[in-house]
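Support reply, case 0932

Customer input (verbatim):
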Amino acid sequence: MTGLQALTEKEKETLRLLVDGHDAKSMARHLGLSVHTINERLRDARRKMSASSSREAARQLREIERQDPQFLADSGLGDGAAATGMGELRAPAGTRRMLRGFGWIAGGVFMSISLALFALSSLSGTTPTPASAPATLPTETLSAPASETAAVRSAR
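Our regenerated output:
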């Protein structure tokens, strides 16, 4: 098994971050791991790649991945645009912010219209008014004992 094939995906991820300019502390913060774990991954990757330094191992990995397109599948989700030649497909930061702002505005307009329609529909419903209430008591009230009838009358 060659050095590259012996690397785990986590070791490759750590080497990719190293070649992108991260140090052990920032990699640990980015991945939510301890600096000790990052240093262990780098040491194992150096040993497997037979490299004298972690940066050399990271450069070797980058060169091999650039040469051999089959290793593009090894990148994690969301890293596909970071592959060689794909950087120009990303939208500029200003465009992303503008689209995000448009989404908030469109959502706010949609919610306002929805609430207005709900309020109008609740106002147009028919509710019994005291004038249209029946003048006589229901038959259940008439058959109830006199004390309950008085209580019902006083409650109304």
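We compared this against your earlier run and they match. Two observations from our side: Residues 66 and 84 are 7 Å apart (CA to CA). Residues 3-85 form a domain with the Arc Repressor Mutant, subunit A fold (CATH 1.10.10.10). Please reopen the case if you see a mismatch on your end.
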